[in-house]
Amino acid sequence: MHRALLVEQGEPRVTDLVLYDVDLRRLTAIRHVLEQQATLEGDREPLNVSVTTDLKEALAGADFVFSAIRVGGLEGRVVDEQVALDQGVLGQETVGAGGISYGLRTVPVAIEVARRIAELAPDAWTINFTNPAGMVTEAMAAHLGDRVIGICDSPVGLTRRVARLLGLDPATAWFDYAGLNHLGWLRGVYVEGHDHLPRLMANAEALGSFEEGKLFGAEWLQTLGSVPNEYLYYYYYSHEAIRAGRAAALTRGAFLLRQQQDFYAQTERDAGSALAAWRRTRAEREATYMADTREIAGAGDRDSDDMESGGYEQVALSIMRAIARDERTVLILNVRNRAALSVVDEDAVVEVPCVVDANGPHQVVINQLPAHAAGLVASVKAVERAAIEAAVEGSRRAALKALALHPLVGSVTVAQRMLDQYVQQFPQLSYLRG
Questions:
Q1: What's the rounded Cα separation, in Å, for the pair 356 and 306?
Q2: What SS3 state is found at 366?
Q3: How does DSSP classify residue 183?
């Protein structure tokens, strides 16, 4: 994101960037990365970068707030995954039991951050990167209203891949995409009123040639008549995903924890290598993304085009341009539903196309979801709501409901065992004891 801000053209532009973290060690390492990045962009006007462990200082005078927090650290993700896998269910950090545990730890902190933003920077726009993005954005929206926007790079990658296959310019196409974060479907690709997706659906060879086609198989995409977000693999192929998770030498969280520890250790040993170490770490992270599911699906390695920069940072930058400069654009975002999807209420945060301008995002009323998708969206939204209730009310019963009712858990007994384990492992969940 820092590099994107450095090379950004036009006015107004960002002049000051404040990094906030509770861990000074991490702040110091990332500051080294940014300083070295700015040096490489020597012909660009540098940003004024400062660091602080004081949230009040970080928020004072902010126009935009990027919220990316991990309560419990990557160590917590490892626990989320392993507790679930030990019970024979999926532990992925945004899908299923692992995502609920992560949300139960994160929502109270996200709400406190939202309250501080409302108090100290009431006119700021908050861009939420924190997972589970839909749940966290909805919790923050109770205090920030429409001035909090959740973003994800999965729809960006999906629409870009499909447009490329169809020989279309993504910038000129309208993508009919809808659902929740990590639970959405691409149902149409329109240029000048003509839907080009049926052309792709009719070509089994082309369907099997890109990331989602390799994951799901051409026959399943043709059966659905749409292209699901890659995270729906965990729903459509849950047994295979669990088997892959249990067979892996390391869970994804354990792999990333080791990788992150190596990065910070390298930066402490040699601050001058911070940028190079960060680039290696990021490249390895991107190359191994969803590696377990790709392996069991026989999808092979990620396409180099999928690892190009242009995900989260470009979505965030596009939002900032649209709001600060009134440069109207269309983006797929996590926002309050209003009247976009009939299957959930108006305050539910959904992932849908939005027209963004100086007044923020405006949800577009779209074609409604087919029954199979609507049922899954309604079910998962009820789970998210129960998790938020648990975090806000301190309700163990609501936390149990969230776990037990998730489509990928399927057992009250298993949910009770996992909840007991999560509460025992995480001091942040002490509010659910007793």
A1: 25
A2: coil
A3: E
